[in-house]
Structure formats: structure tokens, C-alpha cells
Design goal:
Elements: E1 6-9, H1 16-25, E2 30-34, E3 39-40, H2 49-53, E4 58-61, H3 70-79, E5 84-88, H4 104-117, E6 123-128, H5 141-146, E7 148-151, E8 157-158, H6 163-175, E9 182-186, E10 192-193, H7 194-205, E11 210-213, H8 216-225, H9 230-244, H10 254-259, H11 266-275
Parallel strand pairs: 1-2, 1-4, 2-3, 4-5, 5-6, 6-9, 7-11
Antiparallel strand pairs: 8-10
Helix pairs in contact: 1-6, 3-4, 7-11, 8-9
Length: 281
């Protein structure tokens, strides 16, 4: 019989791409679901869901922020015979006041977690904090290349988690026993301020990167001047608020719980990213 594949929804993204790569290195049958994956998948086009789920054993779900689509997707997965779910959620989703309660991303994660827990299937939920890769692959990279991290983060710190650790935990949950019913809070082993991040990246790249703290209003005004819609600029500022308020500095031991080893440090991430040319213009 042909081995049932593991489906990686969002398998071309920061965590999903690493999950797919690790699964393939184990010679597992893997199916990447994305707009440009093994099978075309579009969260907003439900006609693409069944072909992605057909014959699948387990699913790694990277939800669509701002949409309440995880629940119907999970319900469809159950009907089509999936027998294990691993959901990427977010840190602080169940902490009152952690972020703007009206934020779309928070609603996505809360409803998704509830759907997974109520699915009747073995499930695992991952709640990572800020990705370290946001500085090398994500929305902070351009600022790093420009030499200035201009953000409304104050002097708050965050325990940035390496996406490699997220992927390792996801793969363990998808392929091993002992992770069902677990919610893993994932962080790095220490908290860094934005000034600390800038210093770390400066040290491994050999060029100056500095942190420029802005007020939320000044940050929004800068983005609007750059062409952002005001609502989008305010949402971005709101997403940084937990960091500014000191709500992301705490350390979580989910990596050790799941893998029996410590989480990767930001310095190791920065050295690896620099060596790979992440900050070459």
C-alpha cells in the first residue's frame, strides 16, 4: 500500500517550508499545500481543500490570519479521514489584554484552537512568540538592510523563537507519539530588546544596524507617508504593542518539553542567517 502523506498547509512559508523539508529528509510522504505547492491550495477557495486533504494521514495547519476558516477546514479534514492535527497558533491568544481584543489574527487563533480541540482527533497546538526569522525573511528584513529598525517597541524585550525550533516541534508532533493533547508555548532561551537585536545583527554582519524607538503615532504616520493605508499601519503598530509593554519577555519551555533539548539562541540564528546571505542587499 502507498504510504499516506502528511499534508503541510502553508508549506512554502517560514515554518511550513521547514516542516516540509524536515519531513522529506525522513523520506516521509509529504504533500505541500500552497498556491505554488505540490497541490494548489487557497484558503479562500474551498474547492481546493478536498484535493489537498484526499488520502492524507496528518495535517500541519498554518491558518490564514484574519479569517475564520480553520474550523470549516478542520471539519472537512475529519470527514475525509485525517487522523492527526498540528496547529500553528500564536503566543498570548488566551491572555486578556495581550493584544487588541478586536484584532483579526487573535480571533483566527482562538477559533482555530477551539476547532482543533473539539475535532475528536489527536491534536497538538504550537504557540510560538516572535519569529527570529522576521529579521531575515519577514517584515523586519528591509529595515535591517536599511540599517535602522524604526519601531514603536520602546525598550521592551522579546524571547524570539527560531523557526527551525518550531519546525522541529511540529515534525515531532506529526510523526511521534506523546504529543497529543499538548499545547506547546515556544520561545527562545533569552529575551532581547530591539537594541539588543540590532547589536547582534551588527556583530555578525559587520555593518551597523541601529534601533530607533518611535511612538505608535509617529510609527503610523511614517507608514502612511510611505503609502500604507491608515488602518493597516495602526494594525501593525498594535501588533508591536505587547513587545513595548513587556508582555513578550517571558521564556517558555515548550521546545524542551517537546524535544528534550534547549531552544536555539538568537546568536546562533543570526550567525546562520548571515552566513546564508540573508542580509545581502
Amino acid at each position: 500500500m502507498t504510504e499516506q502523506p502528511i499534508l503541510v498547509v502553508g508549506g512554502t512559508g517560514k515554518s511550513g517550508g521547514r516542516v516540509a523539508s524536515r519531513l522529506r529528509s525522513r523520506t516521509s510522504a509529504v504533500r505541500v499545500a500552497a498556491r505554488s505547492g505540490d497541490v494548489r491550495f487557497d484558503w479562500t477557495d474551498r474547492a481546493t481543500w478536498d484535493p489537498a486533504l484526499d488520502g492524507v494521514k496528518s495535517v500541519y495547519v498554518v491558518p490564514l490570519d484574519g479569517a475564520l476558516l480553520t474550523r470549516p477546514f478542520v471539519e472537512r479534514a475529519v470527514r475525509l479521514g485525517v487522523d492527526r492535527l498540528v496547529l500553528l497558533s500564536g503566543r498570548g491568544v488566551d491572555v486578556p489584554g495581550y493584544a487588541d481584543d478586536s484584532g483579526a489574527a487573535g480571533a483566527t487563533h482562538l477559533d482555530g484552537e477551539d476547532a482543533v480541540r473539539g475535532s475528536g482527533l489527536p491534536w497538538t497546538i504550537l504557540r510560538p512568540g516572535w519569529f527570529a526569522q522576521n529579521f531575515s525573511e519577514g517584515f523586519f528584513r528591509e529595515a535591517v538592510l536599511a540599517g535602522e529598525l524604526r519601531l514603536p517597541a520602546g525598550d521592551g524585550a522579546a524571547s524570539f523563537v527560531d523557526a527551525a525550533d518550531i519546525a522541529d516541534v511540529a515534525v515531532a508532533a506529526l510523526t511521534e507519539d506523546g504529543h497529543a493533547g499538548r499545547t506547546y508555548e515556544l520561545s527562545g532561551p533569552r529575551a532581547l530588546t530591539m537594541a539588543g537585536v540590532a547589536a547582534e545583527i551588527s556583530a555578525v554582519t559587520g555593518r551597523e544596524v541601529r534601533y530607533v524607538p518611535l511612538t505608535p503615532d509617529a510609527f503610523v504616520a511614517e507608514l502612511v507617508e510611505q503609502g500604507w493605508p491608515e488602518a493597516g499601519a495602526k494594525e501593525y503598530a498594535d501588533s508591536v504593542a505587547p513587545l513595548r509593554l513587556g508582555k513578550d519577555a517571558y521564556l517558555s519551555d515548550g521546545v524542551r518539553q517537546a524535544l528534550g533539548r534547549p531552544a536555539r539562541d538568537f546568536t546562533a540564528f543570526a550567525r546562520e542567517a548571515a552566513a546564508a546571505g540573508a542580509w545581502q542587499a
